[in-house]
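Help needed: design a sequence for this.
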């Protein structure tokens, strides 16, 4: 049964401006110690501040960052562990949720990624109405040990109950990366995305009607995710009727575009998002959405011709059309994505998209600065580093390619598809530069968990027979 939304009463959390001068001075000393890489001293100072002001979240974040730098990457043995002293602390948390925070921090100082301690920090912070501190506790787990999907589910539900559907959808998406078969996460992401979409519609339209209004209920019903193909077609047909009655209805145009996207009719989705953008007051998000749908439509066209050429190898016309379409698509994508970056130069995702287009166009030197800027987005960082590695490799800069891919691999802990892709690419480059031992080591890591991945089985087994 779903939890009720979190009621945010007066919080016990404070900001830096709320600190008394003596504690502000300690924070300044801690910042100086961090700059000088004197992390142990910084930890002592920050612990002292939090002992007196446990609601100072900025200080807790600084403390955790320092502890992580000291501890290094998370250790596998601690992914799901707790600690011998956590049992007693759980009982104490129920009686004195603020007082127990100091003891929890002592556990986290030993292992800042400790799942059990972070979970207890979450529970204690929730009892003390320190909601942002609670979120920070489980975000630490999400960052360090994303394989712990149990706690990631807890974080996603927390965000949903706090009416933060965008954040909830992002967490569920991370869970699906680790376990693509997690049906609860798949449904959770769809539900959260639908709620976020409704919230944005509410903001743009100035608010929905009353809850008992029939039109509102119909809109909520139409926004529910996980619809069957038949339901989507029915919804599409109903919206088309409304659209034909008034083609300038912004809300209907936007909803129809969303349905076409769910149906993976990329060409119609592009057309309707583009029209919705023209009806809006220059909605940048809709413009970007229209651009992405155009990309998907173009990709679908290329796939169709590739399939035709593959099934009919003697069809010279199909091969010629495919080559012409691919060349045209590459040039078009570079131009369109460059325009998007020009309109919104601070968006790392747009930088990545442009870098990707330049890479496919063979403009490797031009791609690099865009990809480097895109690494600022932690959600796409590993994908960016993978493409950067391929870009440096294409320029013959194998050592720099290895560096990018090694960094990407270090960021990944679960052996999911992206980690396999990074390891495989890293193995190929090591092989290219004659480092057979390192190459085999990369291939073996994949072989241990996925025998059928590409040709790793052949490569690994031949190394034993040779």
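Sure. Designed sequence:
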């Amino acid at each position: 049964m779903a939890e009720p939304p979190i009621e945010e009463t007066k919080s016990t959390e404070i900001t830096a401006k709320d600190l008394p001068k003596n504690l502000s001075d300690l924070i300044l000393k801690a910042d100086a110690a961090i700059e000088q890489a004197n992390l142990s001293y910084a930890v002592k100072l920050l612990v002292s501040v939090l002992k007196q002001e446990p609601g100072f979240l900025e200080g807790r974040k600084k403390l955790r960052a320092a502890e992580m730098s000291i501890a290094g990457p998370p250790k596998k043995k601690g992914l799901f562990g707790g600690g011998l002293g956590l049992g007693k602390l759980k009982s104490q948390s129920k009686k004195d949720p603020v007082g127990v925070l100091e003891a929890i921090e002592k556990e986290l100082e030993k292992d800042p990624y400790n799942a059990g301690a972070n979970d207890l920090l979450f529970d204690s912070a929730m009892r003390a109405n320190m909601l942002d501190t609670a979120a920070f506790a489980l975000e630490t787990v999400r960052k360090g040990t994303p394989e712990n999907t149990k706690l990631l589910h807890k974080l996603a539900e927390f965000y949903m109950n706090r009416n933060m559907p965008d954040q909830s959808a992002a967490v569920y998406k991370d869970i699906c990366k680790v376990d693509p078969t997690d049906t609860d996460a798949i449904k959770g992401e769809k539900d959260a995305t639908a709620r976020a979409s409704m919230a944005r519609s509410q903001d743009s339209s100035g608010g929905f009607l009353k809850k008992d209004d029939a039109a509102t209920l119909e809109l909520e019903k139409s926004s529910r995710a996980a619809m069957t193909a038949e339901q989507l077609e029915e919804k599409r047909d109903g919206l088309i009727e409304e659209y034909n009655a008034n083609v300038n209805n912004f809300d209907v145009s936007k909803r129809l575009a969303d349905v076409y996207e769910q149906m993976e009719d990329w060409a119609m989705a592009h057309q309707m998002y583009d029209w919705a953008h023209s009806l809006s007051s220059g909605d940048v998000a809709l413009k970007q959405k229209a651009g992405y749908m155009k990309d998907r439509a173009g990709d679908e066209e290329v796939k169709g011709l590739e399939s035709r050429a593959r099934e009919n190898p003697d069809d010279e016309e199909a091969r010629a059309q495919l080559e012409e379409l691919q060349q045209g698509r590459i040039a078009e994508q570079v131009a369109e994505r460059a325009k998007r970056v020009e309109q919104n130069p601070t968006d790392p995702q747009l930088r990545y998209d442009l870098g990707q287009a330049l890479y496919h166009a063979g403009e490797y030197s031009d791609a690099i600065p865009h990809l480097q800027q895109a690494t600022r987005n932690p959600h796409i960082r590993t994908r960016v580093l993978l493409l950067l590695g391929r870009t440096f490799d294409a320029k013959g800069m194998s050592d720099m390619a290895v560096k990018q891919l090694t960094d990407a691999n270090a960021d990944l802990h679960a052996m999911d598809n992206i980690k396999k892709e990074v390891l495989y690419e890293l193995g190929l480059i090591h092989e290219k530069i004659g480092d057979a031992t390192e190459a085999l080591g990369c291939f073996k890591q994949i072989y241990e968990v996925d025998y059928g991945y590409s040709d790793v089985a052949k490569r690994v087994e031949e190394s034993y027979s040779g």
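The chain has a mean pLDDT of 83.
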